[in-house]
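User: For a benchmark we're assembling, each entry needs the component sequences followed by a predicted structure for the full assembly. Here are entry 17's components. Please fill in the structure.
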Amino acid sequence: MEYVNSPDFAASLDKQDPLASYRNQFLIPQVNGKDTIYFCGNSLGLQPKTAKNALEQELNDWAALGVEGHLHAKNPWWSYHEMFSEPLARLVGAQPDEVVAMNGLTVNLHLLMISFYQPSGKRKKILFEDGPFSSDRYAMASQAQQRGLSPEDVLVEMHPRQGEATLRTEDIIAKIEELGDELALVMFGGVNYYTGQAFDIRTITEAAHKVGAIAGFDLAHAMGNIPMYLHNWDVDFACWCSYKYLNSGPGSISGIYVNERHGNNPELIRLAGWWGNDPDTRFQMPEKFIPSKGATGWQLSNAPVFSMAVHKASLDIFEEAGIGQLRQKSELLTGYLEFIIDDINQKAGNVISIITPRNKEERGCQLSLILKENGKATHNALMKQGVISDWRNPNVMRIAPVPLYNTYTDVWTFGDLLLKQVHA
Ligand SMILES: *Cc1c(COP(=O)(O)O)cnc(C)c1O
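Assistant: Structure for entry 17:
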């Protein structure tokens, strides 16, 4: 598309946007009595207007029914998690029994690594992307320690080439081949939280399998952002959170994917709890744990219905909008942001660099910007003017225009304010 840096052009794109009405399904935070320009959906997505009713439904059922709500609530609590298998499966490209909503993200990362990080003999190493989210690094290091291994010996962080900000797929593949039979697990993000780089999940998985390693992905920044096909890509396992692009509320329920080949293997080591037991015998409280088939066999506890209620309200919106259509808009919207940043650089003399890949196949909606000067001060000044974005030390401003509720006018206005700021 031929973009133009003007408010009229942005307004015309908004007018033609087939997803424009979805913005009205969300509560937009206000600053100075006006809608903010909210670019933090990569950190905490906005509240769907339907969330409150969904939550009230469960509170009312609890009030009216007490324990009977497990069977007789509008959405019976004992089988509550089952409502998520279809919509989550569509978002990650899985079969419904390969996914389940449960726990928090880091908890799930641990539960999955208990099963899928099985160091033995010389095969002990975990390969991961440059600069992973702190929690993932802690999880991997403590998993190593848990097996009596030293993190320095087994954790391999994959750095970009000198002078480059992101990783090349060919280099990741070469590293996997180099590690060969020492490699137990490739544990990458789907989209890196800092650079916004989307990894080639299919190619990385294929390379990992070729050397006999397992491939797992933390999809915190990919879920609800880019379409995925985990089953067809033969990914072994994955997990995500629902409070970023999935708009399910602070600390809301996470989810996991386990490939059916593993999900149907009852011998696979896992930490067990009653909710992961075969539902046919769960309430007979058998002495021996019989894992439920599929990803549900990794559940430990009964469903946290309040956070799941909001999750359901939010996923209903994704079901209607469709991740394919969302992605189409997302590419255009982030493409517009990229165009505006390039235009600012032309006008103000290369003051901003974009570290996120230029190739749209290698990114989601987020662009990570480095301002040559006064980055933090610029960010703070924009926040005061109602641009909500995220600052990451040492020097990155992360801007995530979300196709469900952001507009082309949001992007244009941001550019306008940013240009005034870098000129000031
Ligand atoms: C957001 C995020 C987390 C946060 O973990 P929680 O357990 O949900 O607090 C972890 N890892 C990645 C990659 C993230 O982006």
